[in-house]
Amino acid sequence: MPSEIVDHSTRVIAIQIGFWLIALAVGASAVGYRVSVTAAGAILGATIVASALVLEVAER
Q1: Keyword Membrane: yes or no (predicted)?
Q2: Residue 11 and residue 56: Cα distance in Å, rounded?
Q3: What is the pTM of this model?
Q4: How far apart are CA 60 and CA 52, in angstroms?
């Protein structure tokens, strides 16, 4: 089976980072961290995802 190296663009990596920040914020909320910590993580993740999507749409 041949191995293949996947070359992700910066936008794809930004979307993945944003997604995982949101997922970690939801996990932190489930464990019982303070609301401010989980909200900050979710807002940061959503901002990264939104900015990557806006750049994608703007370049088309």
Answers
A1: yes
A2: 8
A3: 0.65
A4: 13
